[in-house]
């Protein structure tokens, strides 16, 4: 089973421990290793990249470490790869 870590309970993204293929089942774990969710990847996610854990509407904050790391530039569904193609800077919009 593939795994992704949700570092903070506020996070709407998880960081993947391995490359994930579309359709893979992914266990979402806490830093202590507790499985808190299972999702199906909607598309490939490279090792170290983020996967959406919940719906993120266009314009909503993208959270990792319990902190804002960007803003969704389009709607993101659970299981989607979260990266520069669907997230923009919260500091310098449009970049």
Overview of the structural elements:
The termini are far apart. The chain has 95 residues and is an all-beta fold. The chain is 0% helix and 38% strand. The chain is globular, with a radius of gyration of 12 Å.
Which features would summarize this protein structure in a list?
single chain, mainly beta, Archaeosine Trna-guanine Transglycosylase, Chain: A, domain 4, 3-stranded antiparallel β-sheet, 0% helix
Outline of the structure:
The chain has 95 residues and is mainly beta.
Q: Kindly report the CATH topology.
A: Archaeosine Trna-guanine Transglycosylase, Chain: A, domain 4
Question: How many helices does DSSP assign?
Answer: 0
What structural class do the secondary elements suggest? mainly beta
Main sheet record: 6 strands, mixed
**CATH class call:** Mainly Beta
- CATH architecture, please? Roll
- Distance from N terminus to C terminus (CA atoms, Å) equals 35 Å
Shape: globular
How much of the sequence lies in strands comes to 35-45%
- How much helicity do the residues have? under 10%
The radius of gyration over CA amounts to: 12 Å
Could you give the order of the helices and strands? EEEEEEEEE
Strand order of the largest sheet: 4-3-1-2-5-8
Mean pLDDT: 95
> How many domains in all?
1
Please mark out the parts with pLDDT under 50 across 5 or more consecutive residues, or reply none: none
């Amino acid at each position: 089973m593939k795994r992704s870590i949700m570092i903070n309970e506020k996070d709407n993204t998880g960081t993947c421990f391995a490359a994930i293929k579309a359709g893979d089942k992914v266990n979402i774990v806490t830093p202590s290793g507790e499985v808190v969710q299972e999702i199906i990847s909607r598309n490939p996610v490279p090792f170290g990249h983020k996967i959406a854990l919940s719906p993120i509407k266009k314009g909503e904050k993208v959270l990792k470490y319990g902190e804002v790391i960007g803003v969704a530039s389009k709607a993101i569904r659970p299981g989607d790869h979260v990266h520069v193609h669907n997230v923009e800077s919260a500091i310098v919009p449009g970049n």
